Amino acid sequence: MRLVLFLASLAAALGLAVFASQTPAPLPASTPAVGFSAERAMADVRRIARAPHPVGSAEHQQVQAYLVQRLTDLGLQPSLQSGALSPAAVARIEKDGGDAGALRAVNVVGVLPGRDAGLPAVVLMAHYDSVPNSPGAADDASGVAAILEAVRAIRARGGADRTLIVLLTDAEELNLDGARAFFSEHPLRDRIGTVINLEARGGGGRAMMFETGLGNAETIARYAQATRKAIGGPSSNALAIFIYRLMPNGTDFTVAAGRELAGINLAFIGRPAQYHSPSSTPDALDQGSLQHIGSQALETADAFLRAPTLPQATQNAVYADVFGLSVVRHPPAVGWVLLIVAGLATAFAAWGAHHATGLRAMSVVRGATDGLWLLASAVVVGQAVRVLAGPVGGRIDSADTYYTLLRRLPMLEVGVALAMLALVLVAAGGRERIGRKAIVGVVAAAAVLATALGGFSLLVVGAAVVAVGLSLWPSDEDRTTWGGWLGLIVLVLMLGGLVQVAAPEAAFLFLWPGLIAALAAAIAAVIGARLTSWRALIPTAVATVAVGGWLLVQGHGVFLGVGTDLPGALGLIAVLVVLTARPLAPTSAGEARVIGGLASASLLLGCAVALAARFIS
């Protein structure tokens, strides 16, 4: 039955995504000296994060002294650099009831000289201060400890030509003041060639490389090559970098990037409940995350230290890792080649489908409107599920509310994902078979709920109008499997073309799945253009599992980053999943009713999970 193949392919894609999203196993202290061991690094995490250590506290002074001693023990030449606190930092201290007085940001700087002092140096950077109410095991004791363990491993591998600078900054949590002091005042600032920063916004998950300097093609090439040796492999894509640059967030790397330095910024953002929380203790930290971020930092830093040249700014790369195994990358202009190849494959598939089934152009148009309906509905339904979990936008009136929402984020992700699954089932199973009036009622109710609890949003209201209008568009005989499939492919390739013009480094999210779907369609047209044999559906099933699994991994990262603000972003992932799964969808009325029942159950369960988050967290 097609229904079984359809559901099995979606389930396998989810299983692949869950497996690929796991952190690597932490390596024991018995790991060879040249490797990174999370167990060895945890000794430093436990000491640094035994208690909160904000700027000005007695514990902060003790952590500082501990780090000076650790750098000395590692054979570095440590020193302290003092810098003034910014007015914003002083205001934050006073707001928390403290006295800024004579407080200053004090960086701990260690130097491991290279054989050639004239070569630009490599910086490993993390901040050692915490917020007042958190031990900061993740943010950022994990980064500091990972650097100390990486330095030990680098020394075990033998001397390098380049100098290594360990920069443990202070007052990052206040206003990045330690980094500002170093990159504007320290004598070493002009010797730096590249920077590797380690951060965290949570207590677990795979560590992602989410920021680079501008013109990052050479940096990405070096990162991709170096992290082949990293435990857990690479984890990064150009979309994450593109989105992060649009956000108001900042880390110490922001200061380095402002000086046009090359480099990478690493962080893990899973287990968001631990962000700036008393629960961010060494015992709560995911040691697999520590292993992953430390191993990537070690291999990348070691490669830079031993390289004859460091990355220079050229153009931004288009790239993404594939299940942490390797990084696929290409110049932005190659996107046009992929678009042309996908267009030719789509045209060939349409030609084969027309000769085998009499496919008409209007059927393809209706397939494209199915994708538009899914995108619009995702914005509305996603926001409705989101508001069930708590306030949004301007209604988030305090830091406590923000951190509460972060604690609810994992349950909210499950709720929104279930809602997206419901829309995927409806779009693939056929809206006319499930019932247009029922669909209009659900979208309208979701829009009312989102507006009542979240406030007026032109985006949500506009999306609701589009979704309702497309739901009421009269149905006729032009709806076919081929039309639905090719219409989605055409829509995705058109979106990919628009993004290729506006932001080519982000277009891969559309062009890569679009190309694979187009090639699968062309192969299916050759094997069995009527799409009635199992052989003709095998390419699509394989593409659904592989591409769907990869897309779900990307969706997980996107939601952790922007889910509280824009949950409907998962609608893009939903459309791209349907892109490959559409030919597998059931065609009989009986199976369509089953799909409709599953969609209803999935949507109700998603709402229940999001609502439960409000009471559980």
From TrEMBL:
The keyword Glycoprotein applies. Residues 1-20 form the signal peptide. Gene3D superfamilies: Zn peptidases (3.40.630.10). Keywords: Glycoprotein, Hydrolase, Membrane, Signal, Transmembrane, Transmembrane helix, Vacuole. It holds the Pfam family Peptidase_M28. It is a multi-pass membrane protein. One of its GO terms (biological process) is proteolysis. It is found in: Vacuole membrane. GO terms for cellular component: vacuolar membrane. The keyword Transmembrane applies. Residues 107-300 form the Peptidase M28 domain. May be involved in vacuolar sorting and osmoregulation. This is Vacuolar membrane protease. It comes from Brevundimonas intermedia.
